[in-house]
Amino acid sequence: MAEGFEKAKGLLGLKGPKLIARLSGRNTWRVGNIASNDLGSGKTADLLVEKGHKVYGWDVECRMEKNKPMGTPNEILKKIQNAFENNKTKKKDKVIVLIHDVMFRNSMGGKEKLKQLIELLQKEEFNFDFVSNY
How far apart are CA 55 and CA 37, in angstroms? Predict the structure, then answer.
């Protein structure tokens, strides 16, 4: 898998040695002093770190089932709040939420649901930032 990152980097013409990576289907971390593995993904993560990359996982995952989102914007907000309240985030004051783009398809009213989720998070005074500032 690590070779695939290097190949993609070349094909996409990405400059510089470092990438921000997420291992497909794996909640694996190698960021600063945060290191955790998911289902044997540690070796790949370690190889990426050796090449200067950071590997991010997530604190909250919004899942799909049979191509339909499992959760309304209000339920997603509750999952995020619960992660903070129960100390389930890797950093005390930050949360990484994994939401796949297919959750907000136009055919499922996605634009309106995404807007609602963003408004709910802003109302609760969550701030959005780039993962590179994590």
Answer: 11
User: How many CB atoms sit inside 10 A of residue 93's CB?
Assistant: 7
- At 74, which helix (H) or strand (E)? helix 73-85
Nearest 5 degrees, angle CA 46-CA 94-CA 42?
A: 15
Give first-to-last CA distance, the chain, whole Å: 24
- Copy the structure tokens of residue 51: 């090449």
Neighbours of 78 (CB within 10 A): 14
Structure tokens at 130: 């780039």
Contact between 26 and 41 under an 8 Å Cβ cutoff? The reply is yes
Provide the residue ranges of all domains of the chain, joining segments of one domain with +.
2-55, 60-125
Closest to 45 measured CA to CA, from 58, 28, 69:
28
Per-residue pLDDT band at 18 (split at 50, 70, 90): confident
pLDDT in tens, 44-85: 999 999 888 899 999 999 887 877 777 889 999 999 999 999
